[in-house]
Amino acid sequence: MREIAIVAFAQTDHRRRSDELSEVEMLMPVLHDVLGQTGLKTSDIGFTCSGSSDYLAGRAFSFTMALDGVGAWPPISESHVEMDGAWALYEAWVKLLTGEADTALVYAYGKTSPGEIRDVLTRQLDPYYVAPLWPDSVSLAALQAQALIDAGDTDEPALAAVAARSRTAAAANPHAQLSGPVPAGDYLVQPLRTGDCPPVSDGAAAVILAAGDTARGLCERPAWIRGMDHRIEAHSLGVRDLTDSPSARQAAERAGAFERPVDTAELHAPFTSQEVVLRKALRLGDDVNVNPSGGALAANPVMAAGLIRIGEAAARIHRGASDRALAHATSGPCLQQNLVAVLEGES
Known about the structure:
The chain is of the alpha/beta class. The chain has helices spanning 23-38, 54-57, 63-70, 85-97, 117-120, 137-150, 156-169, 212-218, 246-255, 272-281, 305-318; strands at residues 4-11, 47-51, 78-81, 103-111, 187-189, 192-193, 202-211, 223-232, 264-266, 289-290, 324-331, 337-344. The two termini are 20 Å apart.
């Protein structure tokens, strides 16, 4: 199989609100940064793919405006997914595997501050039986957390410890929105407190992929993608065991995560309870450094947070802090869709 690597990663400083910036203005510095790291120009990129959601922007085909930040003239080979940018990266990876391009630019962005994100995400639900009830994303995550507590898999102090560890780690991340000691806070939806839930975030991220010797020429220590896979659970929450994630486990197995131990895992777990589920499904022991960036509990720009997990894992390989890392992205309620990538650095 053709060797593909992540050779550059950039992201915004994530904020609660960015009213003064359009999506293009928020994205432009990130695109300049990621291209500058490699010395590439837009004309050098063989394929461009983006991830975002029209539901956040409140208008159809909003992603076409973001192309102003890339530069669509002269014409470029471009695609878009109405998903987290991690799935855009998957599409670009496949494109490079076919040999149709040697380099790819992947970017994602999300401004969640203009609307009520808890209500917006109800549109992901089954439109006949669940969506008409308007159960918001935090309430559904609370159902999952309570199921874990009832099963004896965790308790509220353990969930608080997950939040504390994540935000302590985020103190070393200059892009994090929340970091350092953050109080557990009051119940948002029992058993989840404010500290168990992600902040509302505006932000963007971008990565550059390259194949073979092109990657080696662009980056001193490329983060090679050794495997990547994504799977989905049943749409109906009522037929799922919310204390487990078979789709995450299967994606990890297909990506080769269980062939050898990993030293780092960047998990897209917006709620503390979801880290409990993912640790079990992905067979992560206490010796694995989980979310050294702080994870989605430190900043959660919807549609970019999953791509950021992959980018953070790649960045650790770039600077020699990790040799073999697992990166995970999710979408949908209660870990409905899961993508797993395995990244390695050369000796």
